[in-house]
Amino acid sequence: MPDSEELEKKEKREFMRETIVKPPLTRKQIAKRVALFVCASAAFGGVAAVSFAAVKPFADRCFQENGMQETSSVEFSKDDPDSVSPSDGADADMTAQPEQMEQEIDEAVSEALSSYQFSADNFNSMTSVLRGIGEQGDKSIVTVSSGKQDTDIFGNPVENTGDYAGAVIAESDGEFLIFTYADAVRAADSINVRFSDGTKIAGTVRQIDEVLGMAVVAVPSGNLPEEERKKVQVLSLANSYTVKAGDVLVGIGGPSGQVHSLSFGTVSYVARNVQITDGLTRILYADISSNSQTGTFLINTAGEMVGWTSESCRSESCTDRTAAYTISSYKPILERLTNGASAAYLGILGQDVSRAMQGSGIPAGVYVTEAVSGSPAYDAGIQPGDIIVKFGTKEIGSFKDLQAQIENSASGVSVSVNVMRKGRDGYTEIPFLVSLRAR
């Protein structure tokens, strides 16, 4: 028989192999933990997110400096509004919980939030982070000064100057490419770009879009002192289709009327499928102070541009809020302007022919609500009420189709545009030869 010492060692070894298991949490304990998590998220989640976003441009720049320098044409990612999920971000697993569990969690959350107080320190922390995002974004902002020769009432030559905000959106082939307002460069006898250290560099107009009043200016980056050149940040263009009501945005550029000023606020409304010349877009309405004459660019908490302000997109029903065009709708045109190519201009406002309209006998396509006076479409003979069904060789079923064809066309070319026009005997297809011009 084994002695007592061997038995004792065996028992100890078996004991050491045992696993101590904690009892499972009750539903009440789970509910309390969820409530605690929600409160912590409400207080610190937003701060953590924007804090991370504040360092993103610096990290991007570090990676870009260690990577290969792009020498080809500038390209911006294209965004599809249909690819954005309509989900509000709720956890799908939570919605699958039993009804009793949901009720217990709701009660625990309500109890926890009722006793939670959002302090001044919490508010100051959040505004501090937003200010940091704005200051980081301001590294992409320059002052575009235009000089125009004129004469005073006595016939003496004078030079009128104006300062506008510009945003550096790309660096290619030794040039900074700056997105600014057309008023800053239109009919200017001289253009100077002033950087944050006061250095002025003569700029040249790459292209102008008169339809939306925007322009791209190029300046040689090599003319800037090396230390200052390293400070300049390229402002990334966001997918603005993801912006929703309630999102916090930061206004950089010249929201107060002075370049390098700053403001921030929330999006109160997003207007979708707004008719603009040759397309549909989204308009952001936000309680952010802005000055569309000096120029204001809106960035998200990741430090990316989502839009820019303009008086031309303000709605009569939203006169008390800042209106801004969204950048995603403008990326294809902006890419052409940045690369020195003009964007094609057809000159129509319209809307998709809905299923209800088709049910009443209207052909599928783009219903023309207005042919802009003096535009290529107007000069060719296209009229309000026409249905555009073909552009070149492409069948047109929606405004999205037409907008893509216009954006892919070159200015200065003639293209066949077929419309369905209603007459006494119904709709008849009529071809028009339209000479596209630059916007």
UniProtKB/TrEMBL annotation:
<comment type="similarity">
    <text>Belongs to the peptidase S1C family.</text>
</comment>
<keyword id="KW-0472">Membrane</keyword>
<keyword id="KW-0378">Hydrolase</keyword>
<keyword id="KW-0645">Protease</keyword>
<dbReference type="Pfam" id="PF13180">
    <property type="entry name" value="PDZ_2"/>
</dbReference>
<protein>
    <submittedName>
        <fullName>Signal protein PDZ</fullName>
    </submittedName>
</protein>
<dbReference type="InterPro" id="IPR036034">
    <property type="entry name" value="PDZ_sf"/>
</dbReference>
<dbReference type="InterPro" id="IPR043504">
    <property type="entry name" value="Peptidase_S1_PA_chymotrypsin"/>
</dbReference>
<feature type="region of interest" description="Disordered">
    <location>
        <begin position="70"/>
        <end position="103"/>
    </location>
</feature>
<feature type="compositionally biased region" description="Low complexity">
    <location>
        <begin position="83"/>
        <end position="93"/>
    </location>
</feature>
<keyword id="KW-1133">Transmembrane helix</keyword>
<dbReference type="InterPro" id="IPR001940">
    <property type="entry name" value="Peptidase_S1C"/>
</dbReference>
<dbReference type="InterPro" id="IPR009003">
    <property type="entry name" value="Peptidase_S1_PA"/>
</dbReference>
<dbReference type="GO" id="GO:0004252">
    <property type="term" value="F:serine-type endopeptidase activity"/>
</dbReference>
<keyword id="KW-0812">Transmembrane</keyword>
<dbReference type="Pfam" id="PF13365">
    <property type="entry name" value="Trypsin_2"/>
</dbReference>
<dbReference type="InterPro" id="IPR001478">
    <property type="entry name" value="PDZ"/>
</dbReference>
<feature type="domain" description="PDZ">
    <location>
        <begin position="331"/>
        <end position="423"/>
    </location>
</feature>
<dbReference type="GO" id="GO:0006508">
    <property type="term" value="P:proteolysis"/>
</dbReference>
<feature type="transmembrane region" description="Helical">
    <location>
        <begin position="34"/>
        <end position="55"/>
    </location>
</feature>
